[in-house]
Amino acid sequence: MGALSHIRVLDLTRVLAGPWCAQTLADLGADVIKIERPGAGDDTRHWGPPYLKTPDGADTREAAYYLCANRNKRSVTVDIGTPEGQSIVRELARVSDVVLENYKVGQLRKYGLDYASLAAIKSDLVYCSVTGFGQTGPLAERAGYDFIVQGMGGFMSITGERDGQPGGGPQKAGVAIADLMTGMYATVAVLAALAHRDRTSVGQYIDMALLDVQVAMLANMGSNYLASGKPPVRWGNAHPNIVPYQAFQTSDGWIIVAVGNDAQFRKFVEAGGRAELADDARFATNPERVRHRDTLVPIIAEMVRSRGKHDWIATLEAVGVPCGPINDLGEVFENEQVEARGLRVEVPHPSGGTAALVRSPIRMSATPPEVRSAPPMLGEHTDAVLRELLGYDDAKIAELRARGVV
């Protein structure tokens, strides 16, 4: 039994931030009921290619993007634009512990599905809203997108190659980092609210904003600015205070070399056949290497390009110089540590035969997360949930389906 197997979550979210929170709760055992639009569903169902393949190699209708954030959930299709659909969602909220939603500010109020309306029928409800800019402030009404928030929230000002260098300029992260981190912060907030509810029988409202999260996750960079008043700049794959501490291209790929002290620098250049660099006054100590970065780094780059990445990794690991490869995703999932940790899992899927997913990284000794089911087909569990939780009979479900309510 999962740690949250006693918790039911009504998930009104779509795309990534909200579904990521809901999936994390589902991995931990919660019964997550995903409400989707009849005939269309979560927007990400259509964000392909690539799509999940059938056993004979044909595309299914399940986009890989959708698969990443929706395992362990039950899909129920409901048209919340209809009075009957709104009633169904209210009934499901009455038998749930948590409601997640990521509609525009105030949009659910007209349907009677906002926090005030649902808390009136279930006072201990934990209700979490995820938006781009939060429920208050001059930008609250604006739609929020991860890419825009990465720019507005300062992340792109410290990410990317240095200005003046080839390829220099702001760069977004390779994944929707503001969405994903908002999903994780939302998970923490929901768990904290549930702990409070269990002590007091009182629910509460959670206001999660992508911009708030993006600013918060600047971490030491944000603190550096607040302490100094000086905005930090982009350093690409280099480090502002340590040299060499960056990525280098080998003859057949890229590696990271993270020299943390002068002894490691000597070992590094000795391993590369350039021991004289450690005795050069310009490079003998880290402060001097930082001052002469523009002279030293091209020399090291030429040295590293003379050999392959696996040769370098083996050599540097043998002499105790911190290093690692920059892997593409094929290499990631073939990595012996990734395989040993079981990060790739295969689960049965109705149309794909099986679906390959990435397991939760959370490891717990008594209640470990598990992949119980593949991301659901659109409306796969509508009938079962309406029967099980609301007591609807076949005739009522058929009548609702005929009118397009479910």
From TrEMBL:
<dbReference type="GO" id="GO:0008410">
    <property type="term" value="F:CoA-transferase activity"/>
</dbReference>
<dbReference type="InterPro" id="IPR003673">
    <property type="entry name" value="CoA-Trfase_fam_III"/>
</dbReference>
<dbReference type="InterPro" id="IPR050483">
    <property type="entry name" value="CoA-transferase_III_domain"/>
</dbReference>
<keyword id="KW-0808">Transferase</keyword>
<dbReference type="InterPro" id="IPR044855">
    <property type="entry name" value="CoA-Trfase_III_dom3_sf"/>
</dbReference>
<dbReference type="InterPro" id="IPR023606">
    <property type="entry name" value="CoA-Trfase_III_dom_1_sf"/>
</dbReference>
<dbReference type="Pfam" id="PF02515">
    <property type="entry name" value="CoA_transf_3"/>
</dbReference>
<protein>
    <submittedName>
        <fullName>CoA transferase</fullName>
    </submittedName>
</protein>
